[in-house]
Amino acid sequence: MGILKRRSNKKYDYSPRFYDNGGEGSPFKMKQRFDEHRTTIDGSKGLVNKFKSAWADYRDNENQKATRRTLYIIAVLVLIFLYLIDFDLSIFSLAQ
Questions:
Q1: What is the pTM assigned to this prediction?
Q2: How far apart are CA 15 and CA 28, in angstroms?
Q3: Cα angle vertex 26, ends 21, 29, to 5°?
Q4: CA dist 49 to 32, 34, 70, Å?
């Protein structure tokens, strides 16, 4: 039981004896429903690469309603933030 040594998980290679998979791979493989439609799950590592792939997916989006909704949400969040920090909007006016 070493202090610096981590314990590794046990791995089992189980294959059912009487299962005909039809060439689809393991019956125990976990796959999400919409994986083939997503572009952001390409396995790119790092926060910057994930952000770049998500931005490219957002930019190439055909759905204009989703884009408008995102912009509305961002605008509301900015206004709430400005209200919380007591930002004075009168500094942008010309009257003195």
A1: 0.39
A2: 9
A3: 135
A4: 22, 21, 21
